[in-house]
C-alpha cells in the first residue's frame, strides 16, 4: 500500500479517472504542451488588437475615438470573460475541457475574421480622401459581421486564458520537492512565453497583415490555434486532472448570503462558539476584521432539524475558514482597485500611439515599418526588463540585503510609476508632433517627424508592464486563499478588463466634454486636429494620483498568514456542536 501511495498523486487523476501515476503523467513536458495554446492565443489576440485600429480607420473609415474604443472594448471583454471561463472550469467542465472548447471557439472567430476582411462586400468601398469624414463609413451589417468575429475571439480568449496557467501547474505535485522546483521554473518562464507570442504578433503577423493581406494574417492565426489544439489534445493520456471542487464565486456568495440572513444574530463573546468543519491542518486563524461576516459561522436553532439533528446548509452556515477566505479576498480589493488604471495607460499603446505612428515618418531606407510594429519596442522593453531583473537586480539584492528580489507590492509600485512617466513622455512628444502637423497642414498623410520619437513612451510603459504583470500575478496568487487559484487569477485579469473599459469611458467623456459646440475636441475624427497631448497629460496626472493612492493602500495592507488553530478553540461539526450548545 505504501508503494502505491508513493507512485500516485493524491489529488489528481488520469484521463480514465484513476489516481494519476507519477511516472506516467504530469511533469514539465505535459505542462509545456499547454503553453502552445497560450502562445497562439497571445499571437491571435495581440496580433489583432495592436493593428485593429488602423483597419477600423483606414478600411472601415471609422473616426479615431470610435476606433480606439472598439479596440479597448474588445480587449476589455476578452479579459472580463475570464471570470466566466474560470467559473465553468471550477464548477462543471474542468480546466482541460474548458481549454479545448474555448480554444476551438477562438479558432472559429479568427477564421470568420479572415473571411470578413477578404470579402469586398463586408467592408466599405476604398476611399482616397485624406479627410476620413468624407469617406463612406462601414454599414451596420459590415460592422455586425466584424463584431461577431471579434467577440467570438474574445469569448475564446476569456474561456481558455483563466485555465491555461492553472492547468499547467496541475501537472506538478507541490508535495514532491523535485516537481515543486519544476513548477517554479514553469511559473518563471510563463510570462516570457507570453511575451514571445506577443513579439511574433507585433512583428511577423503585423507585417503580413499590412504587406500581404489582412485575411492572410488572420487566417494564419486560425491555423496556428487549430495546430495548437491538436498538440494540446495529443497530451491527453499524459495529463493530470483535478476534479471540479466548486466555484470560489459560489463560496463567496454563500458566506455573504449566510451573514445577511443572520445579520440580527449577536456574535458570541468567544470564537470557540463559531462553526468549523475543516481539517485542523487546513484551517485559517480567525481574525477580527470585517466581523459582520463572522455571523455566517454562528450556530443557531435554525441549523437543526425538527428531530434535533444538526444540518449544515452552506447558504445558512459557513465554517470559519471559509469566512476567513472571503476576508482575505476583501483585503486584496484596495490593491486590486489601484492597479486598474495601469491597464488604461497600456490601452493607449495599442490605440492612440499606433494612430500617432501612422502619421509619422516610418521609413528606413526602402523599408517602411508597419505602424503597429512600433509596439515591438513595447515588447522588447518587457523582455529587457525581465532579463535585467532576473540576472542583475535579484542577485544584487540577494547579495546586499539577503532578499530574493523586490516584493510583489514593490514590483507593482515600480510598474505604476513607470507608466505615469510613460504618459508624461507621450504628452511631451505629442506636443512636438502636433506642432509639426500644424506647420505642414493637418490633412497630410505623413508628417516630417520620425516615428522613433514614440520609443520612450513605448519603452517606459512596456518596462512598467514587466514589473506590473509579474508583481500582480505573484500578489494575487500568493495572497489569495489556497483553494481559490482560479479566483485569484480572475481577480488579476479583471484589472486588465476594467482598465480597458475605463479607457473607453474616459475617451467618451473627454470627447463629449471637449468636443461640444462644433469643436473638434481633444480626441475625435482626426488626431492631427485634436489635442491628444492634453489627453495624455490627463492620464499622466491620474496615474501619479493613483500611484499615491496605491502607496497608501500598500502601507495599510497586512499579509495574514494562515496558522493552525488549536482544535478546542473552535466548535466543530458533530458531537462537539451538541456539547457546546
TrEMBL record:
One of its GO terms (cellular component) is membrane. It comes from the Eukaryota. The chain crosses the membrane at residues 70-89, 95-115, 190-209, 215-233, 329-349, 369-389, 409-429, 449-470, 491-515, 535-557. Signal peptide: none annotated. It holds the Pfam family PTR2. Its main location: membrane. It is found in: Membrane. GO terms for molecular function: transmembrane transporter activity. One of its GO terms (biological process) is transmembrane transport. It is a multi-pass membrane protein. Belongs to the major facilitator superfamily. Proton-dependent oligopeptide transporter (POT/PTR) (TC 2.A.17) family. This is Major facilitator superfamily (MFS) profile domain-containing protein. It comes from Citrus sinensis (Sweet orange).
